[in-house]
Design brief:
The complex is a heterotrimer of chains A (293), B (257) and C (351). Chain B has 257 residues and is an all-alpha fold. Chain B has a single domain, classed as MetI-like fold (Orthogonal Bundle), CATH 1.10.3720.10. In chain B, 76% of the residues lie in helices and 0% in strands. The relative contact order of chain B is 0.14. Chain C is an alpha+beta fold. Chain C has 2 domains: 229 residues, Rossmann fold (3-Layer(aba) Sandwich), CATH 3.40.50; 107 residues, Beta Barrel (OB fold (Dihydrolipoamide Acetyltransferase, E2P)). A 6-stranded mixed β-sheet of chain C has the order 6-7-8-3-9-10, with helices on both faces. The chains are: A mainly alpha (293), B mainly alpha (257), C alpha+beta (351). Chains A and B meet through helix 1, helix 3, helix 4, helix 5 and helix 8 of A and helix 1, helix 3, helix 4, helix 5 and helix 6 of B.
Amino acid sequence: MTQSDTLRRIVLMLPALVAILLLVGAPLGLMGWVSLLEKGTTAGVDWGSAPSIGNYQRLVWEEDFDGTLILNTNYLVIFLRSVLQAAVTTLLCLMLGLPVALWMASLSPTGRAVMLLLVTIPFWTNLLVRNYAWLIILREGGWLGMAVDALWPFGPVQLLYNDVAVAIGLTYSFLPFMVLPVYSVFEKFDWRLVEAAHDLGATRARALRRVILPVAMPGILAGSLLVFIPCLGAFVTPALLGGGKTLMLGNVIQMQFGPSRNWPFGAAISVVLLAVMLLAMTALALWRNRRSA
Amino acid sequence: MNIRRFPLTREISLFVLAYLYLPVFVLIAYSFNANRTATVWTHASLDWYVRILNNPSIRAATWNSLVLAISAATAATVIALLAALATRRAFPGRNASETILRLPLILPEIVVAVATLILFVAVGIELGLGAMILAHTVFCIPFAYLPIRARLDGMSGTYEEAAQDLYANRFRTFRRVTMPLLWPGVLAGFTLAFVTSLDDFLTSFFLSGPGTTTLPVYIFSAIRAGITPEINAISTVMLVISILLVSLSFALTRLRR
Amino acid sequence: MAETNTVTIRGVSKAFGRGDAAVRVLHDVSVDIARQEFFTLLGPSGCGKTTLLRLVAGFEIADSGSIRIEGQDVTHAPPFRRPVNTVFQNYALFPHLTVEQNVAFSLEEQRLPRDQIRQRVGEALEMVRMQTYARRRPSDLSGGQQQRVALARALAPRPKLLLLDEPLSALDLKLRKEMQIELKQLQAEAGITFLFVTHDQEEALALSDRVAVMQGGRILQMGPPREIYEAPTHRFVADFIGDINLLDGEATGGGVRVAGGQTLPVQVSRPGPVTLAIRPERARLVAAGTGVMDATLVHSAYLGTATLHKLQLASGGDFLIRQSDPVQAAPEKGSRVGIALPTDALQVLQE
């Protein structure tokens, strides 16, 4: 009986496992290999080239014409900008998302369902279209631009194509990823704990800091990861709202697979991105383990 | 004093709602603006909608997007349904299986997209609709899986026991009891997978071959070429479709029977 | 030889989980249930009664032992190959089907002709007086109505054996009493063997031809309700069913010497420490010095049909007396009273 159950389970799981292993696992593995190869002359990859870590070196050093390695900060700057941009976005999402989740938890069941739908809808609507909407608002001659110009006496303000525009767009894109996990914690939260805290003399602020936030921490961390990781690999927002000036990792990857046709180098950057992501996830897992231990 | 109410949370929430929805409304409003420059309001008109209907590239891209979304969502829903049935009860390795199922959700899309591009080129899969259907199916699996799994979790196993008690064998039990009770979850899963595929830009951007542009890829290149009122109109259409479908799936998951 | 039993359970054991985590829920259980008998498994939650029912239904498979239904070995048969139907604790009525469709389910699975299905569904619904609700959905029905539909659904295929898993536990007290009477009538009408599972001792006593009291995966005592109530063999059975007074004593040749000095004329097979049990309604309150032993009256509660006296024994233990003699006024609180124990009401317990 249990044996046939196991067999049934394996057969049912097989399509999903095969699909994901063949179309996620295999590509990632191959990409790791390609990141060690050299770019081809006509195609993106020279499959016959000897594997080396040259592409990873290129991220930091550049070969001078006489063969010495000199520091190249171009990619380091982009990398740091991506991490910083992702961190700022995560912080902004937290500052906006936490109060929203708190407020949602105070609503009636109907109010909660409505808010849940309102917060979820942007998550499901086209990312490109939503960023395009900000492009319309922020561009020169857009209504926000005109309003700012009217209030700002020192000449026209460029709202678009800078880090601020990208931060606005990224926060806009990923805010639901923060609200939903944090809210799911508050939804199950036992509010009698807060009553108890008040009863024991804690003020509202102290109850928030000492009771509510610690309980919400798993949701906050999960949300932060859900915002941070896609931000790091963001392509659409910096491409539309950052113009050509504020590149992020995603744009550099796209360029290697597009105009530059240097697939191995693009693969190397992708591997670095994956590594940062894994690092962030491991840190979170360690924190969770320490907490539960 | 309501212990759940914290000062400013309401104000911030209303601000966030405005932040989330104002750009969308601005976009929709502009799509009905007759003025070519798209920023100066003259009067309401449906001109741009008529234009996109008559634009052959948009029509081709729409067709591609629909074929892609229906194929990928169908395949993903079937795979996810089987996986959800397999992971219904606890067994050793269930957590590992679920992590693998969620993998396409966690990984940065651009990385998976370029990796898939490398694989397809390496093994000789021609870029285009077929390649996109394969890739979309995989990242749609977790979106289809979650509502089906949620429905199964909320479903008591006694209904199936009752069916077997009443002489239905395993297959008949699945057909007459499990599936009818599960279908709102399956439909919700399909809807979410469909929306996810329809809205996807990045994967399609890397895997669409010449002549198989999808709607988001078309919109991206159109924006690059310059903002036009047609983009506002086609974007509005996409927004409305997504919102309707997501609301539908939301309603389905709340369905009692 | 013609089989006279509907169910024959022989040496059935069952454990859940594997290795060190395995929990044995049934230990070598054997039961025979006669044709048309109303048989009840009674015990607290976790005693194994529901597992035993699920083994008979086929939802679980026994680790060892055998189960036969009408002479046919069904130990390893799936539920859909057993001539058995179940009334589930929360009814498990299919929410996507109407009352009529629920009742017709098994008949359709058995591929009966359409007109026969219609006739049998009508009969089953009539039996539980639910004909007028045929087109309703289960969610439109009250708990008692759902209960009736569940009964009709389980009876429609005319099973050899009906299993009832705490079917009345979700109903309120008044409805439960009504349904108890209906269940009993239904069983007589349908002439089907009932295997009933409950934790409610009153329900078990009121309905059953025979009761098996279970604890820790074993059957402690099996017999007609009167025997279970009046002649419990185990301390657990005595304690689980109704109020009971337990007196520790020492068996000697002449009887049992209880703490306090008196020797009661009870026959015990071998000497040593024993426990005597007596129901509160069988003991009587008498004047101090005239009973078997004396005690102090702690409290008297008037219950309408009787008066419940709580006494404290010299040994420190409590003793309850339920006196259904309304004329007699209760002695004052704190006064010394005597306890009279009719010898035939005393039970010697094992363990």
